[in-house]
# Entry
Amino acid sequence: MGNIVVSPHDKEGQHHMMATPTSNNPNGGSAATAKNKSEITVLLLGAGESGKSTLFKQVQFFHGVGITHDQERIELIEIVRLNVLENAKNLVAATQHLNIPIEQPENRETAKLIINSLNTNDLEDPSWSKRLYSLWKDAGIQKAYENREKFQLYDSTEYLFENLDRICSDKYVPTVVDVIRTRTKTIGITDMKFDVGDGKQLRLVDVGGQRNERRKWIHFFNTVDAVVFLTSLSEFDLNLYEDNGYWRVKESLRVFNEVVNNALFYKVPFVLLFNKRDLFEKKIATKSFSKYFSGFNEAEEKNPVACIEYMTKLFLNEITEHPLDTVSVKTLSAIDHDNSKQVFEEVKQFIMTQQHRE
Amino acid sequence: MFSTFIEHNSTFAVKVKQQLSTLYYAQIAFGVFYFIISLIILILLFAFRKEQPISSRLATPFMGMIALLVESCLIYITQRGILVNQLKSSNNQMWESGDNDSNIIANIVTIFVNSLNLTAIFCYVIQVVRFELMKFMYKLIHKTKGNESKSDIVLKSIRISTSTSLFLLLTTLFMSFNLVYWTIWVVLRRINVIEPSTYTYIVSISYTVIIFFLSLVIATVLVFDFIITIKEKKEEKKNEPTDSTVKENLVKKSIKMKNSLSKVYDFFISLDEPLYFRVEMILYLICFVFLIVNQVIGLIGLPYRFIDEENYKTALQYDVISFIFEVLYVFTYILVFGGYALLILLIYKVKIWRKFSKNGKSKQDDGMLKNKELLLVIRNEESYESFEKFCEKEFSLENLYLHSILEKHSKIVNGETFEGLSTLLNQIFEGFIQSGATNEVNIPNSCRTKIVNLHKKYGFEKKDSDLKNVDLEEVRQAFFSLVQQVFVNLGDTFSRYSLTTEWKVFKKAIELKEHITEKANLY
# Structure
């Protein structure tokens, strides 16, 4: 999982990429001025569920702030349990929608309770661990899970159901991994700061990715020194959370286009991170990739490198107003601590180098 | 009551025997009525002693009602019975012994009932002061602006001043002082060291003076309460347009123009729920005014009692006027000492019963997310303000405002009524749901679709009268889903707000409040 070397010769539509508008760049000097600034603002952007907050939490963790502290994780108990409930609810709803019966009568009873009355407080009772696990293992639910591209379900589902014995206890304190694996829909904009040496601080800004949240990004566009754009590799078979009839890849490309070509980011170092590589590799082993991309060679569809290269081209083709030498592309598995640490370090180095170059 | 303090001398009552016995009969009748009422209230208080707002009143209403029960039984029924009985007899000796018996009863009543009554009022004073302190504790804490050491000083002083041991100590001291004080005067009277009229003057005036001072404290608390509320309303107005486009356009729009009567009602109720001490304090002051009039008129008539038969007639007229105020006093007294709290409880019970009979699905209303702390934050004025600022900083105000609107229209949201449904749907759809809305909220497609469908059916320019066959269950389901999602969104912001110093200080205040209320049976 390393860098993908972006060379202008690899890509289609070079004429777009080479275009470098300067006249309509009202704040083009932001990167230059950033060179002397003591604070470097890095924006984590991307559509919903691309993994911005997961990376943000990982960065917190390896800088010993935020979720590293027990007290901060205790505050997230509700969110972890809400994830369990939402996943369970979505799975039960999916069995109805997809017409897949829940097989065991006791699981059907549990399903009824989940839909009608179960709340996060109830999960303090350890008996729910067995009941929910039994439901999770029900053949009907498992079949619905196999068809999860047809409805909205968090990536964390399997992990959370496998850890119910810990979560359903009144003594439960989320582990760092629990927090990282839990899906948190970020609302608004939040940030963290940490030292990066040379008396400089890096301010990492995390944002919500859904359509309504993206309108808030603009508040930070003027002060930005670098952009890290995340997109999920494993979303090729999924539709949007906020609009069920819209393909996620199309949305991601559209957002990427708007951001990368924004005049305000013209000289700003830009990193494109293809996230969820782990899930993607698992997914293409069982699902057809070429079914979703007519231009892709079907024979290569089980080869993750070929698939990722194709995706890279697709995204880079969107670049029309940004100098390519300030763009870096990488793959990432944000739930993997070591990988996140390594990739983020590279991202940091890239940004710093770009700034020195300026 | 003034009737209790009179030293009876029936020697001059011969000429007004008829009128006097009529007054006594009226007093006996009222006495029976007071007895029954106070007994019923006492039983009800006992039955609902663990429920609010009764339990927040501690022993006060019990003491008050026992005092009334004893007073009505001994003074109005027994003593007046003896006096009526002697009036019927023509034997002067019997009159004297009757006077003596009745006076001894009145003396015993004076010692015990005065002590009980005054201690009940004293407890009431402590309670309202304590409640007022707690009510504005958040404001004190809030003023420390998250400064932990400052807030610790505030918390410590509140903890000491509202401690149970201090409460018990003060009450016991006051009760003992009362028992000794009234016994001294009764003994002095009985061994004829002081004249009957002197005794009545001393007892009546000292009783009134003690009550006057206690009332003064209550009045001060009430005035303080009003000043703070007015100040807050002004501050609220001043601070409102934190985000003028959002708040003014959306939240203010949702508040219907209210008539002045409901504004007055709102003012009384604001910050007073759910314990309603404020209204009770006003009732207490009315009760106090009646008592003063009762005592003053009684005292004015007192000299005529001991001169001759003609003057006794004048005394009797004063007695009648004084008695009318005594009746008014007792009625307000009953309200202050338990009656009003029971009425509030009754209203609550009826409301809950109505809600249940209309909609049995109460469990689902609670929703999936049980974040009590978040609810606490958004339902408390001070923390709401601080949370609002945090949301503003994080660009997530839209969820807080939508939540406020949904809470304000809880009857429509819970599917209890469709009055105003169309307006609410238009407001929510245009402001928060439709794609590109100024304050579009982040909700899943399934939830959005439900609200959009609801808006298509019942929204647009429809009036309430145009809405027919509204499927209240569909309305409830759609809003339930929206409320949940907004709450989930707020939960994300809260997960970061909960790490701020402001929240930590506020949480300390909550913990202290829980500690105090546990001891004081408040909430």
Q: What stands out?
A: The longest helix of chain B spans residues 309-358.
